[in-house]
Amino acid sequence: MPSRFTPAQLSDLDRADFIAAIGGVFEHSPWVMARAWEMRPFSSRADLDAALVKVIREAGRDELLALIEAHPELAGKAAIRGDLTADSAREQAGAGLNACSPEEFELIQRLNRAYRARFGWPFIVAVKGMTRHDIIAAIERRLPQTSTEEFVEALAQILRIAGFRLDELLTDA
Fold first, then answer.
1. Distance of alpha carbon 28 from alpha carbon 11, whole angstroms
2. What is the pLDDT of residue 84?
3. Which one of 57, 125, 126, 171 has the minimum C-beta count within 10 Å?
4. Residue 92 and residue 47: Cα distance in Å, rounded?
5. CA–CA dist 167, 84 (Å, integer)
6. Contact 142, 150 (CB under 8 A)
């Protein structure tokens, strides 16, 4: 199986191969891609993106909450244990979260706890292009939001993360 796919090549895959090829785009949630597969064919990236958005919009609240909770906390326990997916580990390292000073690490841990206490799920942000200072500022900026606003924002960030991950798996040629 190739490492990069065109939307047409993805459309030609059977369900199991489709999920194997790009099911990890949504952290520990292959059900998203399983449902998107039903909407084939994808003649373009825009078609695939539209299918993914439709899957998220049509999912029930419990499924969406499970999708949010499938994401690890930034610089959290999974990172400390080395239990992140390869994508999450690469993304967090790219944002410098693996190089936090002890003070920055403690601040992120404290903000993660405050966020989870307020909303009941982990803070999620698409870290590509961000620094650890940007991430700290984002948590602080989002903490005052309402639960509804933050639920919507978490899902928007998950879609951004999925988009970045798909950028690495898709080709136009």
1. 22
2. 54
3. 57
4. 29
5. 20
6. yes
Q: Are 165 and 86 in contact (CB under 8 A)?
A: no
- Please report where in the chains the tokens 């999620």 appear, as a residue: 124
State the residue for tokens 């999708």. Answer: 67
- Global pTM reads 0.89
Residue of 21, 36, 71, 151 with catalytic role:
71
Neighbours of 143 (CB within 10 A): 14
Query: In angstroms, what is the C-alpha Rg of the chain?
Result: 17
Q: Please give the single-letter amino acid code of residue 30.
A: P
Q: Give Dmax over CA atoms of the chain in angstroms.
A: 50
Residue 71 falls in the annotated catalytic set:
yes
pLDDT for residue 40: 97
Give SS3 for 125. Answer: coil
Nearby residues of 128 by Cβ (< 8 Å), 6 or more positions away: 91, 94, 95, 161, 164
Q: Which amino acid is at 142?
A: R
- Return d(Cα 65, Cα 32) in angstroms, integer: 13
